[in-house]
Amino acid sequence: MLNVKWRPIAIIAALLVLGHFLLLSPYLDSRRLSADPSADDPLNHGSPVNDPLIDIKHPPPVTVTVTRGEAAAYTETQVVKETVVIHEDLSEPQEKTSAAFVILTRNKDLKDLRETLIQLEDRFNRRYHYPYVFLNNEPFSDEFKAKISNIVSGECEFGLIPTEHWSYPDYINQTRAAEARKDMADRKIIYGGNESYRHMCRYESGFFFRHPLMDKYKWYWRVEPGVKFACDIDYDPFLFMEKNDKKYGFTISIKEVVETIPTLWNTTLSYMKENEAKIPKNNLMQFVADKDGGYNLCHFWSNFEIGSLDFLRSDQYVSYFEYLDRAGGFFYERWGDAPVHSLGVAMFLNKNEVHWFEDIGYYHGPLWN
User: Fold this and answer.
1) What does pTM read for this prediction?
2) Edge-to-edge order in the sheet of strand 99-104
3) Which residues are known to be catalytic?
4) Could you tell me which of 98, 105, 166 has the C-alpha nearest to residue 134?
5) Comparing C-alpha atoms, which of 256, 248, 264 is closest to residue 314?
6) What are the pLDDT digits (tens) for 156-189?
7) What is the dihedral of CA 147, 150, 153, 158, to 10 degrees?
8) Nearest Cα residue to 214 out of 125, 313, 305
9) How does DSSP classify residue 58?
């Protein structure tokens, strides 16, 4: 029992609490009535709302449920539902150019590619609606086409790579090529034993821009599954390239693994000697040459490129690629498309025609721009 002398104090405290609740009750009810009706929806938990205390005004969110994987015993493959906030479409820009995103991918890349495209749309393309061209050496599944088309604002086209662009040309000795792969695998050179990777590098070096789906475009933006775009891109990079007479744009420049390209530099020098008339005097060869006249291994990381298709289709670049292809280094070594593109750019373009997109927040593991 409560001590008699404390009983009046307890009664007063109880009355104060009751009065406080009665006074606040109308205010709480009004807050409930004015609250967003989707607040109780678990899929909208944590979604941004318009906040008068900050400058950014978020539009009303549209919730899309994305299923990652199938339920299984492992944590990383359990069904996970995430909320994707799709911003309101803005009006069509008054000025655009003839351009498309080009993506070499496979059906198995669907999950990673969807995450990349959701970011790319949110950061840039929801305002511009540029089209997408997806290329594969195998037919795309109906599921892939549907789940990709549903998350992008631009037109989607899905192309099959011609067999002759993803196979061995008749001048390649396949026995020698297999021996080279085994040797590089034994030496633990990255992708050294990977046959498909070689076909990919050859295709990206000399064929993607010749696919019929690319014929109607002047500019391309290469995108790969799993890359990330960290910041809003508040201008049109395609138009920037066009209006400023640029031919090639990049975000990250690194050095190549020397064991993958032992003869690429000398093959390039041989091409230059045999085709002097095609090589402009004012070019970027100093960017890739060391003080002794060798290759310094610098190259533009080609998983991100914004470039001129007219440049890649030019007699200069195509003749360089075909010279390299005949030399066999895509299969007898492991020539990558990044150094091939970079040497072509350095040979045929000047520094004013190449642009570093330092303002585009971009990630391809393990590097950020």
Assistant:
1) 0.77
2) 156-160, 132-136, 99-104, 219-222, 305-308, 248-250, 354-356
3) 305
4) 105
5) 248
6) 999 999 999 999 999 999 999 999 999 999 999 9
7) 40
8) 313
9) P
